[in-house]
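Dock zinc ion; give full complex structure.
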Amino acid sequence: MRGRNLTRMALGMLLLACCVRLAAGADATVTRTPAGNGNGAAARLPPPPPGMFVPPGRAITHVKGDVYRANNGGWYVGILDTPEGLLLVDTLSVPFATWLKDELAKKFPGKPVKYVVLSHSHWDHTEGGKVFADTAKFIAQEGFLRNMDGRYPALPGDIVDRNSDGYLDVPEFEQPSQLRPWYCGAGGNTVSSKDRNGDGRASPEEFFADTPRPDIVYASRMTLRFGGKTIDLVFPGKNHANDGTAVLFRDERVLFTVDFPADALVQGSMRSLPSACGPFDGHSMDEWIKSYRTLESLDFDISVGGHGTAPFTKQDLAEGRLFMEYLKREVEGAMSRGMTLEQMKKTLMLEPYREWRHYEQLREWNIQAAYDNLKTYK
Ligand SMILES: [Zn+2]
């Protein structure tokens, strides 16, 4: 049974990375064989290491006060219940959103979804909004619109427009996963399933067909008062994405974030090395560190979000920043001593983080990402 599920996931889903893991079971039903070449890569992948991802399953769970989460395996959305209706953070996918709408009607009868906050423009978190479009307004950071403007968008997992043709091609999604299976890249059918005109690739417009266009955007901060609640939307800076929104449910003192600081590798603890695809998703380490500090400056007691099975504390977030600062210092120091990247990989053991999850698999990749990052963003 398990093997079958894994095969379905390997064939049908994102291979993931920073955010793009296979929405564990999520859309595992999407098993159509992608068109075009290069697709065989997904099928050739070895199974993910045991326990790497949260098992499939869907449920609505209580977080605190009027805040809830609903999950699709290891992918979560946020829910705020108010007397005037519901606010969601993300909708994940059309199949999940369809399921969610039914469940919300049972759990919160007579309460329409009035707002959907889109955490960032990566498809594995924000597709499916159209299911709620009859009642909801969509809110995002303004960079979200830029990513939907018809050009090749900013994507996670080292997925970039390698051939500079402006289209999202199957090899561009699969190549990073061939190098680093289950950590970077995504399954080819992430692209081919969106290829509506059958030309073997997805235009940016085709790619965003299931992602709602925001009705309301903001630049750095926005405060929403709704149903007696106060909700702050905060752009922390560029990190995993360039259009991220952290949602602070002020009354509950709950912070909801997606993919930053907890990427899809995070489960019960934030002590997990970043997937570190490409040069840290194309944003300088200083921007990452600044983003951590922005979140740490907010007034909250617990943090939950798009990944992570447990609530985290401000101290957990601080540990992520301390890791990034440590890594930057170590690699900068080695560069100033004239060490080569290969020498760094052999000698920088990131000793304080030996017990963190994925240390064995990601220590060298984090060194490489930091090295590339520091060379790129001076
Ligand atoms: Zn993401």
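Observed: Residues 1-271+298-309 form a domain with the Metallo-beta-lactamase; Chain A fold (CATH 3.60.15.10).
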